[in-house]
Design brief:
The chain has 201 residues and is an alpha+beta fold. The chain has two domains: 44 residues; 154 residues. It is built from two helices and 13 strands, in the order αβββββββββββββα. The protein has an eight-stranded antiparallel beta barrel with strand order 1-3-4-7-8-10-11-13. β5 and β6 form a beta hairpin. The longest helix is centred in the C-terminal third of the chain and has 21 residues. It starts with a helix and ends with a helix. The relative contact order is 0.20.
């Protein structure tokens, strides 16, 4: 029975371990964020840093590529006071071949859940907005889920009026370790075998 319980715990832990691999962090700056009841879109934003690409270290530059996206429609709240947008849309990070960053599409995907648009009033009376969501897609040809993105916008003492320049953006991709999928399968098969033996005894 103790062995059965141990295998059960290991099997439950394997999905977590599967996504505990290395991470890639993309940082972007500038660009125009446009919003309406139909959704949010970002264009003209510049990729300025990449960390962990192909297991490498931090790469920085004034222009390493671009970041763009669209969300689904506004489903609650408002553009001025904060709200929630539907998932879907598209999200693309492209490299331009500078400083060791490959040329072409680095990440492409969609928002796989609601996208949160939150208003914060700072101590000096200015307003910050953050746009936060999760993505699923393909990072350099490999399937990726649980990708997180956060954008920060400061509109001064006014409110978001439908278009603004973003301050910064950060997209984090978790890359599963090689062999983790087969490890998960092996663990579940082993657990199933023990269960069958227990049922027969």
């Amino acid at each position: 029975m103790k062995k059965l319980l141990l295998l059960a715990v290991l099997a439950l832990a394997l999905p977590t371990a599967m996504f505990a691999g290395s991470g890639i962090d993309y940082t972007n700056s500038g660009g125009t964020l446009t919003g309406s009841s139909s959704g949010m879109s970002l264009s003209g934003s510049t990729l300025i840093a990449v960390n962990g690409l192909n297991g490498g270290g931090l790469i920085t530059g004034n222009n390493l590529g671009s970041v763009s996206f669209t969300t689904g429609a506004l489903i609650s709240g408002s553009l001025q006071m904060g709200g929630t947008f539907a998932g879907g849309g598209s999200f693309t990070i492209t490299g331009n071949g500078s400083n060791g960053v490959p040329s072409g599409t680095l990440f492409t995907g969609t928002f796989d859940g609601p996208v949160t648009w939150t208003l914060y009033t700072l101590a000096n009376g200015t307003h910050n907005y953050t746009l936060v969501g999760t993505l699923s897609g393909t990072n350099e040809g490999a399937s990726s889920v649980g990708v997180t993105v956060q954008l920060t916008i400061n509109t001064g003492k006014g409110y978001f009026n439908g278009t603004t320049t973003i301050s910064s953006g950060d997209t984090t991709v978790v890359v599963p370790e090689p062999g983790s999928l087969s490890l998960l399968g092996t663990g579940l098969i082993g657990l199933a075998g023990v269960v069958r033996r227990k049922l027969k005894s």
